Amino acid sequence: MSKKTQDIWSYAPAPESSKVVQIKEKYDLYIDGKFVKPSSGKYFKSFNPADEKEICSIAYGNEKDVDLAVKAARKAYNTVWSKLSSAERGKYIFRIARMMQERSRELAVAESIDSGKTIRESRDIDIPLACNHFFYYAGWADKLEEAFPGRKPKSLGVAGQIIPWNFPLLMAAWKIAPALATGNTVVIKPAETTSLTMMILAEIIHEAGLPAGVFNVVSGYGDTGAAIVNHPDVNKIAFTGSTAVGKIIQKALAGTDKKLTLELGGKSANIVFDDAPIDQAVEGIVNGIFFNQGHVCCAGSRLFVQENIAEKVIEKLKFRMASLIVGDPLDKNTDIGAINSKEQFETIQKYLKIGKDEGSEMYQSPCKLPKKGNYMAPTLFMNVAQSNIIAQEEIFGPVLTIQTFRTIDEVIQKANNSPFGLAAGVWSDKGSKVFNVTSQLRAGVVWANTYNKFDPAAPFGGYKESGFGREGGLHGLIPYLKFD
Amino acid sequence: MGRLEVLKTYKIYIGGAFPRTESGRTYPLHGKKGDLLANICLSSRKDVRNAVVAARKAFGGWSEKTAFNRGQILYRIAEMMEGRKAQLMEELVAMGFTKVAAEKEVLLSIDRCIYYAGWCDKYQAVVSSVNPVASAHFNFTVAEPTGVVAIIADEKTGLLGLVSLLLPILAGGNTAVVLASQSLAMSSITLAEIIHSSDVPGGVVNILTGDLNELAETFSTHMDINALALSRSTDLKKKIAENCTVNVKRFFSYDKNWADASAQGLHFISDFQEYKTTWHPIEKIGGAGGGY
């Protein structure tokens, strides 16, 4: 097969206009219903990873700002939010969902500019799902008694939430919506490289008229997050990020009464059996690892192909990869955008070197990369051993390791032989085999004959060192409630 | 001269066998009058590690048993306890309980076994969900056991506290490594004998006796224990919770009066469950509008 699909299928540039979003020079903290300057007076710069240009300045919140935000959240909890009827509470959240939908195009463009993800994904996945999350949880607000009959669910108080950089607005929605619906107030911190959509969301929530102090944003770096985690008047911490930081947070909360949800790293297995629909499986492999530049905690980063079809699958995979367009995130034809930051780009390069040093065979699709910006070609590693570092550690980039297997027992052993347990994929047209494998995989999300699907109604979260607690669905209410 | 009583050697329970601690150490347990009741095994770190290996090995088989079968086996534990009521009460009395308190504890423990035996094939229907996703997928969430669970039993009860944690953990398909009450250790070893004769596969339950101060570190830092349930007031609580982070171990602390009616419930099962969401496409070709 030809590797020159890009030459056959050439596309004219189709950039989405960035005029729809008016990015301010400077974004302040949002505390107690007001946009306020950080007490230190410090701001940090946010860059567009696609062209490395400065986008705006973001307020750098410190311990004092966090304290003000927690105090505002506590006051709002005691005086307003916990006193409000649950139906009225729900109506506020519905209103936020609608106002986000109205400004979804603007949010999508801002998200792509700030994070490097393609407009196709921010427009069709991140932003609609974020809106839908608010819409979904809004409806739960006045039905909690029915969700947990006989258990008298009660809100916790102030929820501290720390958001990762890979799905900035979507992960914020996953945390804010259930927290508000269950009657808690929120102090939230966006990731330092991707604060922009959170700042716009604060404007939307402000315009929605949510009572002052119910929702507070304190942007900043790790020390800002640590101040939220360690604040004595926070009742719950929800964190999405790396397993290493997750462990630090779990340790910091040990011996306290704070509730905790951790959504951490993964090294998810994507398993293709010889009776799978091969072309669909190849699409699923591509979507599993190259979605969002591979910056996905549940990425299908370990491919297991049954030995007798490995050659064919890899050939088709390479062919399909050749048609992936890497480039301008705002171009509607782009499949893979920019790596989120220089640091992450370097981390991925480090793993590529490790992979080659370990003796694995590296393949990168022959695509054209823009001259400027953090871009990299989608990458495969073949001849990978179970013990190789690239098959064990989370790379968080568009890098797939490929291993083969002969029997079901063997692949289940290999797939489960990881400290992580976030997600997995299974490809086979035989229903009984699918259910055997999906039930034996030790992972919190299992996609059968599909991959990387998300929905507000579907609980998401990990086994083992991928964390605990669920986000989404009825189960996503539990971490924000206490019971008699 | 009456007949000389035959005394029992109290051993620990690992992988369906009753070895002595590999360390060869014991500690004496005395009655009210200072009489020696038994030399109890002072388990070592190596015993903990051996027990975890046994529990991990047993996990696959136990978690894959049908829920109905697990219910039958837990019910069998209650049957066996009922038959050995007198012995269980006698041991509690020897360790300092009044007759009334001993009887109450044993009967409540048996009833609690029945309670959780009944949950085995029911909790899944209560905690699972079918999720109406906005795409052509069948999407459902089920509970699955967390894995190998460590139980640090309380020091106030000889039997009831242990049963109240062990049974929901087993009902949910987990396997367990127990550190029994140190001061009331005899009952837990007799419970091990009861479990051993109740069709519970070897390794599903492992019961050690010993000193928490010595073993807390091993339990809490062990990389192959998935969750730890502490039901003892100890200065080590914070340290144990901190250590649990090495492998993101689920940590639960229960400060309960196990005789309370509220000390049993579905959440003692669901605390030791993980939720798995499964997606599968629905092929929407044909059949549309083919209703009645």
Folded structure, characterized:
The complex is a heterodimer of chains A (484) and B (292). Chain A starts with a helix and ends with a strand. The longest helix of chain A has 20 residues, at 119-138. Chain A is globular. In chain A, 38% of the residues lie in helices and 17% in strands. In chain A, 59% of the residues are buried. Chain A is α/β, with parallel strands linked by helices and 484 residues long. A 7-stranded mixed beta sheet of chain A has the order 14-15-16-13-12-17-18, with helices on both faces. Chain B contains 10 helices and 10 strands. Chain B has a single domain (26-281), classed as Aldehyde Dehydrogenase, Chain A, domain 1 (3-Layer(aba) Sandwich), CATH 3.40.605. Chain B starts with 25 loop residues before the first strand and ends in an 11-residue tail after the last strand. By secondary structure, chain B is α/β, with parallel strands linked by helices. The chains are: A alpha/beta (484), B alpha/beta (292). At the A-B interface, helix 10, helix 15, strand 18 and strand 19 of A face strand 4, helix 9 and strand 10 of B.
Strand order of the largest sheet of chain B: 7-6-5-8-9
Strand content of chain B: 15-25%
Largest interface: A-B, 45 and 34 residues
Major sheet of chain B: 5 strands, parallel
Number of strands of chain B: 10
Structural class of chain A: alpha/beta
Helicity level of chain B, as a percent range?
Answer: 40-55%
CATH class of the largest domain in chain A: Alpha Beta
How many β-strand stretches of chain A?
Answer: 20
> Which overall shape of chain A is indicated by the principal axes computed on the Cα atoms?
globular
Low-pLDDT stretches of chain A: none
* Integer average pLDDT of chain B: 96
How many structural units, i.e. domains of chain B?
Answer: 1
Radius of gyration of chain A: 22 Å
CATH topology of the largest domain in chain A: the name is Aldehyde Dehydrogenase, Chain A, domain 1
